[in-house]
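Regression test case RT-17, inverse folding.

Input:
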């Protein structure tokens, strides 16, 4: 089914106009009203986590517990952990039994989730298993046989091919998470199914350099003390590059320290906190311009989707760094984080007032965006060590 979240913080103007064209008739006829979706909350309302959680819970339980939508279902596990179920069946177990497939390479067979199901290589194994607290020893049934998550990890390593000259940089984040969870820095080398040696420290450095290059214009703007004038390369990565940052944070937590890695990740952590304001500035400018030539209600829908995506995913990274004591924010950064959380609460509660189904208006891709991003926002806002809050 592909990955519906492969967008940065916004569209090009042509992509945006094409995306909303199908709903223009609804807005023109008056059948589509989103009154209240963009209204600001009071400080007291924005600080009310119970209401924000109730809205996200409702979205996840109604739309993510869907047997026929594996992408949404594994995001439900991402949000809620191993206990997340669909019709009384463990969501993780159901995904394994229904969607895993065997893949043969050089005469050996490996069990893996097809990329057309998970959207990105190793997204299921990272987000709905290892990073959701499901360990490598965890068993599951597949075709009346008992297998373990460790079998999936072994398959992921065997199937992972790393050539810096041709590697899809936007497909790296989830493999970083899988291998960081399962590969010690002291034993970071393996041979894949094609007989090629993979040294994970080299993959981590590749990811770090990619992140630095992709965000260098944002870094320059931050150092100058100005808001960015335009999007950077990182904004073309899935969810504004937040998955890549999260993947590298996981590597840092797992002990990877080569080439001043911790110091370089501190720079990127500082940049992400700055981006809570800077990316919102870019999105506001883009959508204000869009409103001059597009139905305002529909522009507001896509603005809400983009804000939920970036702020929800960014909160995951910030809370992960806090949870595992990777970095300590300054008082000014703490204020920036709180501002970001209040902005995210404003977006979520605006969505709650209208309802996801009404906002998506029959657009399945847009509905998937809201559902997946709601799951990431939930995970970020209520991240707990070892478990996710049900």
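Golden output:
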């Amino acid at each position: 089914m592909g990955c519906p979240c492969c967008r940065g913080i916004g569209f090009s103007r042509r992509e945006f106009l094409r995306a909303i064209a199908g709903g223009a008739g609804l807005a023109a006829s008056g059948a589509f009203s989103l009154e209240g979706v963009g209204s600001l909350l009071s400080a007291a309302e924005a600080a009310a986590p119970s209401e924000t959680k109730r809205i996200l819970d409702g979205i996840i339980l109604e739309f993510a517990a869907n047997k026929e939508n594996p992408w949404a279902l594994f995001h439900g596990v991402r949000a809620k952990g191993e206990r997340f179920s669909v019709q009384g069946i463990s969501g993780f177990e159901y995904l394994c039994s229904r969607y895993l497939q065997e893949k043969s390479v050089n005469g050996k067979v490996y069990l893996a989730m097809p990329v057309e199901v998970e959207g990105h290589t190793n997204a299921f194994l990272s987000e709905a298993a290892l990073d959701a607290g499901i360990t490598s020893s965890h068993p599951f049934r597949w075709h009346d046989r008992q297998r373990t998550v460790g079998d999936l990890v072994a398959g992921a390593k065997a199937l992972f091919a790393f050539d810096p000259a041709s590697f899809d940089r936007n497909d790296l984040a989830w493999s970083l998470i899988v291998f960081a969870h399962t590969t010690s820095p002291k034993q970071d080398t393996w041979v894949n199914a094609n007989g090629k040696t993979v040294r994970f420290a080299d993959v981590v450095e590749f990811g770090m350099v990619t992140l630095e290059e992709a965000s260098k214009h944002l870094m320059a703007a931050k150092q100058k003390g100005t808001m960015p004038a335009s999007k950077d390369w990182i904004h073309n990565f899935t969810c504004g590059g937040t998955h890549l940052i999260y993947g590298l944070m996981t590597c840092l937590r797992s002990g990877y320290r080569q080439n001043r890695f911790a110091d370089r990740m501190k720079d990127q952590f500082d940049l992400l906190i700055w981006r809570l304001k800077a990316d919102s500035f870019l999105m506001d400018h883009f959508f204000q311009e869009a409103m001059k030539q597009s139905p305002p209600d529909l522009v507001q829908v896509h603005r809400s989707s983009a804000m939920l995506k970036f702020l929800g995913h960014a909160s995951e990274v910030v809370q992960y760094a806090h949870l595992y004591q990777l970095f300590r924010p300054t008082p000014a950064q703490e204020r920036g984080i709180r501002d970001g959380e209040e902005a995210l609460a404003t977006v979520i509660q605006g969505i709650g007032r209208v309802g996801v189904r009404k906002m998506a208006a029959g657009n399945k891709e847009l509905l998937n965006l809201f559902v997946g991003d709601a799951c990431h926002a939930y995970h970020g806002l209520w991240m707990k060590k070892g478990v996710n809050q049900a």
